Known about the structure:
By secondary structure, the protein is of the alpha/beta class. 43% of the residues lie in helices and 16% in strands. It contains nine helices and seven strands. Strands 3-2-1-4-6-5-7 form a seven-stranded mixed sheet, sandwiched between helices. A hairpin with a 5-residue loop joins strand 5 and strand 6 (125-129). Helix 8 (192-203) packs across helix 9. The longest helix is centred in the first third of the chain and has 14 residues, at 13-26. It is globular. The relative contact order is 0.15.
Amino acid sequence: MRYCIGIPTINRADLLEESICDLRTNCPDVEVIVVDNGKQGLRGMLERSGLRFQLIENEANKGVAGSWNQIARIAFGAASNYSWVWMLNDDVVAGKSQDDIDSLCAESSTGPETPLVITAEGWCSFLLPAAVWSSVGEFDEAFFPAYYEDDDYMERMRAQGLRVLIWEARLQPVVFRNSQTIKKDPSLNLNFSANRKRFVEKWGAEALYRTLAKKV
């Protein structure tokens, strides 16, 4: 496969297991990289799934951007050398076959405006190409623990003339739960206002309006 799957998680092992069960059925040949920020003891569940996996167990929460960076470093490193990472939230059920995703990667790789980052609603499911990662660089881990790290990346892509294809229906999970991690632990959302302020200071109010309109 030209891609692997990356999933950060912190406190929803119950929902992650549903996601892994779906991947076992629909993407049995795709390697999964899981970043556990919450010491949830996931190895046994992943071993029982039968999927090829790598598990990163962090001593402290690396946040969304930090977790995406950990996954991308492995996926695009010399040892793995994938062309794409399909990033998923831990609280969704993707319901896509491995060939569905492979076709999206192929389309983007040969389209008129390449490379693209392709996202579903709220970046709960998105495809990140190695070419974009190489050009734009890592996600900004100062947007911690969550929110605006994706909007910041879109602005950085925009500054390089790259494009994000947003709200691609073919990436939308069949089960989409909005921010179940934060629902379980609202303290993870305490930095939302600070992250928004940081984003505006970095990119200006016009960029904030773009995030609200979901245009890039």
